[in-house]
């Protein structure tokens, strides 16, 4: 059957060519060094995965480690709730109002990280009682409402449109500027990526869409890539400034690129990327540019005015719609906007970009269906809580908060610089300060701080710790410095060094630094599973 053979060898050649081409283009985009590193990492991971699967001793050891770690997680997360009355199924007869309130009271007061004392990084950004009361009242008045029905709840439509408008003004939106509210920063990022993907698909026929963003960009971009079948190309950051490496971004641009992104500031180190530099690239190649100001939210727009008073020598770079290449910005009203959790705004330079995030099902037997964001029904009560917070606090209130928070962060940064062995990551000018150590195991320092009731964030690649200052941390800044000094001294005395930090990572790894990878995935899944244990 020569025809069959001919056909099969043509098919085989086509396949070989396809993979050769895609490997070559990968090589071109990532560069030889990066590709080699990717292949190395991939092989090492696969190798240890094989070891873990097929070498009984290693498999046993890894499983034991995992089991212990998961049990500890479960004790930490779930056990505390187990002394309480458990409702694994609906009560046959509903509880009385008094009983419900009593149980709510107990759960509200379960032992938790001490955010009230300002010892938690981020998480609770305002925490003032008067504002919480106003929000609860606003929420109560609109708890039946749903943005899906603007005719039934016209007040909610008014509030949502005003929230978008107020936030656009803060970010110097142009005449054509527009946006939508979302359920939070992640949804805003999802929308920015979706609209860029759909724009490139409809206007340029791109079917393998790629996003270019710094390694420090929020994981919401990885989530967007996962949900919408896009490829996220990470650009490295400069080793000194920790801003995205513009040369690397430029090299990653190719015909599949649909979006470039930068942060103002990023979550790990609180560094504002060079948005004007990114803008030059995005204008040159006609690619949309997203600025993630989810965290910057209501701090960065006031930064320039705040520094004029705190320290006029600090230059605040441009990051908003005044930078011409910027096509979309995300801003979390539920962070420094002090709104109740569950609200954020995605803004666009023009309505045609916003249109690409809309979903329409015009032939549905249920009627013409049109929805602006991910959710169908949306809780109008959150809009009321958000709107009430924004108009209650106003420009003066946010400017004051910005000044206090940024001054606290600046103070913490300057004090850390005086502690032997600690190094601040880059030169943060916003609300987040990250630090690492040249001599000590920074995770040991983090453990010591945890023992003193602090709840800071541990970072990786490189190992570091950060604090996102909030209104509550302002008063706690001095305590933090004292506790940090003591922790650093204790770790130095303990003889644990930076080398141990490396060893720890390697150790997890006798079954390899890589078995950590297999293990980390399992641990993360265990963590999520624990959320639903009763
Ligand atoms: C918090 C944050 C987000 C979004 O997070 P959500 O938890 O979904 O609100 C996005 N980017 C940065 C830089 C953030 O800090």
Helix content: 40-55%
Mean pLDDT: 89
Number of H/I helices: 17
CATH topology of one domain: Aspartate Aminotransferase, domain 2
Shape field: globular
Along the chain, the helix and strand elements come as: HHHHHEHEHEHEHEHEEHEEHEEHEEHHHH
The computed structural class is: alpha/beta
Report how far the terminal alpha carbons are from each other: 64 Å
So, the CATH homologous superfamily of one domain?
Type I PLP-dependent aspartate aminotransferase-like (Major domain)
Radius of gyration: 25 Å
Bound molecules: pyridoxal-5'-phosphate
Report on this structure.
It is a single chain. This protein has about 525 residues and is of the alpha/beta class. It has a domain at about 110-125 and about 175-375 and about 395-500: Type I PLP-dependent aspartate aminotransferase-like (Major domain) (Aspartate Aminotransferase, domain 2, 3-Layer(aba) Sandwich), CATH 3.40.640.10. Helices cover about 50% and strands about 10% of the residues. The chain has 17 helices and 13 strands. The chain has helices at about 1-55, 55-75, 95-110, 130-140, 155-170, 185-205, 220-230, 245-250, 275-285, 305-310, 350-355, 380-415, 440-450, 470-475, 475-495, 500-505, 515-530; strands spanning about 180, 210-215, 230-235, 255-265, 290-295, 325-330, 345-350, 360, 370, 420-425, 430-435, 455-460, 465-470. The strands form three sheets. Strands 1-7-6-5-4-2-3 form a seven-stranded mixed β-sheet, with helices on both faces. Strands 10-11-13-12 form a four-stranded antiparallel β-sheet. Strand 4 (about 255-265), helix 9 (about 275-285) and strand 5 (about 290-295) form a beta-alpha-beta unit. Helix 1 (about 1-55) packs across helix 2 (about 55-75), helix 5 (about 155-170) packs parallel to helix 12 and helix 6 crosses helix 7. The longest helix has about 55 residues, at about 1-55. It is globular and about 85 Å long. The model is unreliable at about 500-515 (pLDDT under 50). The structure holds pyridoxal-5'-phosphate. Pyridoxal-5'-phosphate binds near residues 220 and 266.
